[in-house]
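Worked example

This section walks through a single chain of length 190. The input is the sequence exactly as stored; nothing has been trimmed or padded.
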Amino acid sequence: MNTAIQFTNRSDLSTSHLNQLRKKGHIPAIVYGAGSDNIPVEVEEKNLLSVLKHNPRAILQATIAGHGTLPVLVHAVQKDMLTGKWIHIDFHQINMNEMIDTKAIIHYSGEPVGTIQGGVLQVEVHEVDIRCMPDKLFAGFTVDIGALAIGDQLLVSDLAMHDGVEILTDSSTLLVKVVNPRVTEEIKEE
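Given that input, the structure is written out below as tokens.
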């Protein structure tokens, strides 16, 4: 999914200027990678969040004055610890002709049969590392856990494969399991 977004160059890197940007509803950011210099920018928070709400791993077509349109991915986000608001973003400029390593979110759906029977759901992993061409990038895996009974588990190897996507996380990594509540109580006592 490619989405266009406007970035504005910024030259003032002072803390007071950054705070003024945030008060105006803008997020300070930096664009780096793909053999180019770092570019300090700002982006309107409302527009960015509306784009990323549907796909946080979207490849954005960032238009920057003097630099043209660059394909970028959100690489890192700094959040205010109290409010959870985004206060800085690192965007990684990507080469659309080279494989990229990134993360894919795992969305769990359904209510496991085992929890209805009194078991406890334990989610171990919320995202996995993947490698793919930028045009094969997707929002994440959706995993139906409704059939899991007490004692059942899912591993990375159980994820549905996507064409052109290599999962880098070890295939034996535990994603989710439903445990007997007595086992959970014994662990707490120890």
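What to look for: Helices lie at 15-23, 45-54, 113-116, 181-189.
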